[in-house]
Amino acid sequence: MNLISLLSCLSLVLAAAAAQAPKPCTVPPLMTGGITVMAKNMLSTGKISYDAFAPRMRVRNYGTNGNETFAMDQLMLFNKKVYYEIDWSKFTCKKKALDASFIPIQVPPDAKLMGQVIMGSSSSWGMGVLINTWYGSLPQNGMYTSVFTETGCIPMTFTSYTPESGWITLSTFNWVLGLSDAMDFIPPFFCNKSKLEETEKPDTVFTALQSLAMKTKKVE
């Protein structure tokens, strides 16, 4: 009888522990912040806007690729599976197919918890932030890890590897809830006549970010 009681108590403890384990969270619906992109010889930093309702994302970055300096402006419409490469110096726009199956600003529902830690220090209030690290697999033998805050589900860093795009790291910071410019997700007027380019397969977020950096005209 005592053994049965002990097993029952142990089951309750395990159930309570499982219930308290972090689960994939949902990011705030509208956010604006800063972003840094690192991949191979490329390093860029700038502004990001994200709308989880649609979903859609706008990235405006300046950076370097080897000895070249570049500017990039990219509008990703995941709901329409297209993205725009915008060149303000020429008022031109390219419309391309986008693989919307994976969005790094969100926690995938099938993500696995790697661990929960405090980034910084827990010695005093305000010295650290509780974060969850998630991991999972990507198509074509890829893998990823992502870090989100426990409170608020705010994205912090994302690192992935695929044979096609190699290693890429996205770091976000200074997030503010809401949008600073409601027009961020509206393509510029000169994109209206852009036709969808024919490609063998759609770009992912990662290949799109890298290809744009390679093709953007050098800033004088």
What does this structure look like?
- The protein has 220 residues and is mainly β.
- Helix content is 14%, strand content 45%.
- It has an eleven-stranded antiparallel sheet, covered by helices on one side.
- A hairpin with a 4-residue loop joins β4 (68-77) and β5 (82-87).
- The protein starts with a helix and ends in a 5-residue tail after the last helix.
Short synopsis of the structure:
By secondary structure, this protein is mostly beta strands. The chain has helices at residues 2-20, 205-215; strands at 30-39, 42-51, 56-65, 68-77, 82-87, 92-97, 112-120, 128-138, 142-149, 155-162, 166-177.
Average of the residue pLDDT scores = 86
Q: Estimate what percentage of residues fall within beta strands.
A: over 45%
Largest sheet: 11 strands, antiparallel
What is the radius of gyration?
21 Å
Measured between the Cα atoms of the first and last residue, the distance is 82 Å
Which regions have little confidence, pLDDT < 50, spanning 5+ residues? 5-19, 216-220
Order of strands in the sheet with the most strands? 6-5-4-3-2-1-11-10-9-8-7
The helix/strand class is mainly beta
The tally of strands reads 11
- Give the fraction of residues assigned to helices: 10-25%
Shape: globular
Give the ordered list of helices and strands: HEEEEEEEEEEEH
Count, helices: 2
How are the SSEs placed, and which strands pair?
Elements: H1 2-20, E1 30-39, E2 42-51, E3 56-65, E4 68-77, E5 82-87, E6 92-97, E7 112-120, E8 128-138, E9 142-149, E10 155-162, E11 166-177, H2 205-215
Antiparallel strand pairs: 1-2, 1-11, 2-3, 3-4, 4-5, 5-6, 7-8, 8-9, 9-10, 10-11
